[in-house]
Amino acid sequence: MQTRQRLAHEHGARLAARLSVAVAQGHVGSDDPLDTYTADACAVELSTPLDWLGFDAGARAPWAHIPPDTPYAPSPTALLRDAPLPDTGTAWLALALCNHDGRLRERAVRAGAGHPALAPLLVVRCADWAEPVREAARAALIPAVDATVVIGMASLLLRLSLRLRGDFAVPLLDGVLRHTSLSDWSALLRSPDPAVRRFAYGVALDEGLLTPVELARAAAGDDDPVVRDRCADAAVAKAGVADADAVLGPLLGASATQARAAGVSALRRLGRPDAAVPYLADRAALVRACARYVLRQYGRDPLTWYRARCADPADPTLEPGAVIGLAECGVRTADAETLRALLDHPSTGVRSRAVAGLRALDVNDISLMRALLDDPASGVVREATLALLPSAALLPEPWLLARLAPGRPRCVRVSAYRLLSAQGPEAGLRAARELVEDADARLRRHAQARVRPPRRGGGT
User: What is the pTM of this model?
Assistant: First the structure.
């Protein structure tokens, strides 16, 4: 469980523990101010699904979250069993709904149906492991639940749907969204929970509730890849000539690769091959491939454009994407020399893409790549290292060991260590021994793992 999720879960559990101690010590009654506080906490302190789920779990094991200096108090279970639950306050009902005693939970379900603040705990009980509790909760909650309440608990319902007995959750949420106006639940499209946004956009797409322009903006602005992909595909499929510019603008200008690729692909159907030309040099391989596809559908060869764009090795405006694009559709015998000439380009990105392009064309020039290991740009050193790995055995081991010296740039030292490791286990071990006390924490960890591998089997 991620740190943020764990903290939210523990937050709810600690609140349940404090409340359990207060009930056991007799500090909470139907007129006690803490009752009012607890009702408000349902909307404030327990504001996320993990808060509620943590409260549910913490109420059954409060001792795990009680501070050690807390005065002794008996378990509140006996008090809750004897309490007239319909007449007690929200605090008592909240604990009873989460108690480990199934009979008490069933009583609390029937008593708590009229408390809106406890609706999240009633929803949790709809997925209870005890069938009488589960059926009582569903009978009390589902038929009479308000649509606004369901929409507000969308994130909790989707989490409960993953449980063994959470089969009620998705149909409940789906039915509410499909039978209410989009304006009532449009906030779910902006929910911080990606699962909620995916579900909401899925319903909106099935029902045709969003325009192509709205879908394009969602594809360009959402940070969830599933939402981006679905919205981009739907926007392209629904876009027409009249709204083409409004749809293509957000897609082609998006930072997400999938959104840009969808926008470029749409240019073929809309009859705009010229608009795809700038994306031949896009930073993403998928977008470049889509641009080449669009041009080829109109009988135009993108290789001609790439060769013309990379012809001047001193062009300061040359894009790194154009360089690697030449390698992606070029020919080794005809285009390798063009890429070689770009190894002296002033741009770091162009040089690194030129090295990657030579490797893609299977140009295995060991002396050239060895010289590039001293390039001041770490990206160029990294690409040259990748090109040399298959031929690492041909490099002098003493020369590589000398490059591990602490005074060298970090990219040079990492490159030397990778190449020595590729020469075989013995050379890799000698390189690791040079780095076991190194100041670089990552290199030191890798070296220590090789020199002192973890023991297996628990032997001594």
Answer: 0.80
